[in-house]
Amino acid sequence: MQLREFHANHDININNEQEMTDETKVKLLGIEWNTSKDKFIWNWKIPQGGLQTKRQILQFYAAIYDPLGLLSPIILPWKILIQDLWKKGMSWDEKLELEEMRRCSELEKAFNQFNVIEVTRWIPQEYSEIHVFVDASERAVGLAVYARRSSSMTCKPQLIYGKTRLIPKRESRKLSVSIPRLELLAVTLGIRALEFIRQEIEVRKTYLWSDSACALHWLRKPPVGSRYISNRIDEVRRCKGIEFHHVRSTDNPADKASRGLLPEKLKDDLLWWNGPSWLWEQKENWPEDKIMQESVISVCMNMGLLAEEEIQSPEVITLIDVTRFSSLLKLTKTILYVLRFIAKISKDKIKNLKDFSRDKFTYKEYEKTTQLLVRMAQSSITQKEIEHWGLRKDQNGIWRCVGRLRRMMPQIEDFPYFIKKGKLAELIVKYYHENSFHASVHYTWTKMRQRYWIPHGRAYIKKILRKICRGCAMWVVTPFEQPDFPPYPTARITATRPFEITGVDLFGPIIIKENQIKIKRWVALFTCLTTRAVHLEVVETMSKEQCIQAFRRFISRRKQPKHIISDNAKNLIAASKEIIELNRIEGETLEWEFITPGAPWQGGIYERMVGVVKRSLKRAIGTKYLNNAELITLIVELEAIINERPLVDIEEIGLVLRPEDFLHPGSALGERLIGGKDYNRNNATANIGNSQTKELKHQYMTTCKRLDHLWKIWRGEYLEELRKRAQRKHRGPRSRIRREPEIDELVLLKGDCPRNTWKMGRVHKLLRGKDGVCRSAVIRTANGNDLVRAVGHLYPLEISSRENGKEHSPGECR
């Protein structure tokens, strides 16, 4: 887009651009700007015939373009009128009724009498404070944001942003929101506006002012049980560096935005344009913050809007520490022994302990012990819970959950005990779940509620079983999500000598016949990470010695590599130790890198080539049996064919880039495709003498140029083809744990056997890549061995503190 005109309100030097409009009034984003006065101007005109339909009203006030909300107070009455029309169900072009027509006429008259508002555009850059005022009414919430310069010379604040939002009208009063909640909503909107402004303007201090003592007190001590309030308080608390203050309603400019003004009053309203008068002064002269006055707080408490500072909790009976036990039977027996001991040593016979004896445990002893446990758990029940759950006491003073079924059973003892959520409830759930052979949540809850009633029992049982039932977790847990594929290693995208960085793998067996005897052969595959060339060697066995022999043949023809990547096969691990030691003795450096055990995708560089070779072998051999010589010949020919496969096809110049071109830059096919015309294959075998020295040098330089040209194409075309790869994520089950493992977390290690035989261990160390992402971990098993496994092969058996209550949780019993 080309720049057509320049507009400025003071003299500036513009090089090479002398033409500049002389107009004093221009349009800036739909707003008229008077460049001589440096003011924004809004004007409007009521159409002839007035506004008689909902469509005309909306067209009129929507035409007043005010992105900063500076005119919010005069727009609000029109918004309220439109909302009332929607509530009545009037169509777009239906004539207004008498009452709405009267309200519309009053607004038209006010806007006709005063149809222009001018606002100063310039705001100094040295403003260091932002003040947000918020307010709410029955119809709308509003806010006003002021920038204030904090200096010894002047502190004049300036309105920079305003906003109003209508309150949705509810059909039922029961669904309406109270004024204190609307005030809290206004605080939340003020926080959002402040976050937006702080992204655009650098400020040192930020203030938020509200005239609602309840809303500000909620920020300090949220009430219990209100999701609406807690969600908004959480959002407010996430915004840091804000000072909250109380302001009187008469000094709150946001009151104009929440209730509305007419244009004539808005023009000269200093409270709206510049904030309260005391904001012009130094901070020491601001009014005292009286939000915590006892009179204000007591009024809010009497209205039920605030909670008491300290709630007296009932006395809790703690005969024994229940948290020390992991089994309900052990806990019951321990208390039973204690009660037997008390009954034995007491001089006076205790009435409630007369059934305790020295003989075998009886049903009455178990029943009285259970009642004592239940009474201990019920010692913290509040009156609110008693009324809410419909509890009734039996003759033993134990609360039972009767609810609305009191006429169903004549005896109150037939109703279940009421158990609050806690350690005892957890032990009860575990007892019934294990006794029902790890049945589902529904079955466990059905059996348990015949004797015990826990609030929200089904959800509570599900939560507890996820945490404590390892037997169920073993069968239903899902693995950690394997992170996205990492960036290509440097060896894949850096030009190096062929086979300088090599991937190694063995595959087979291939059945051959020698003297009518079937024997096995394997193939060692070496592939270059840079040029994707392959080298194949036939080996007789999978032993360490055969691997070393194959490696010796490889380096004799392809030179010594500097870095080797392979899987964790025992023969390769044993061979690598001897090969590295031999290289160390000879003064050469060789690095041998092993991928994570059980993670073949990390060796995809050679696994892909193994697949190519095996597919070609199957199609070439079919059902025939080759002898050893034929197999070696076939493997060598197959190596040549694979190395002539195209890496990238450049149709514009008719060039196919192949691994063979890097191994033998002067190959016949490569010459023809590269376009070399001065290369003569016969010259390579000519008698070398003084007369041929110049020709040999020329051929050498030509070969070097061709090789440089190949690497240039490799960088420009082949690497671009690698970029086009669409797959970024590993394939796996949908329900995966989308987080990293944690140190000391208990996990299952995926194996090729049934789940109940998988190994179990704890995360000892996280292994991170160069990009800082954890893709593998060291797991310490029960016998002290450290195993390295990919993250996607770990199944967590514990609920993480970060995961609790989010997304999927492991070990859920269904």
TrEMBL record:
It holds the Pfam family Peptidase_A17. GO terms for biological process: DNA metabolic process. Residues 703-796 form the DUF5641 domain. Residues 423-473 form the Integrase zinc-binding domain. InterPro entries: DNA/RNA_pol_sf, DUF5641, Integrase_H2C2, Retrotrans_Pao, RNaseH-like_sf, RNaseH_sf. Signal peptide: none annotated. GO terms for molecular function: nucleic acid binding. One of its GO terms (cellular component) is DNA polymerase complex. This is Integrase catalytic domain-containing protein. It comes from Loa loa (Eye worm).
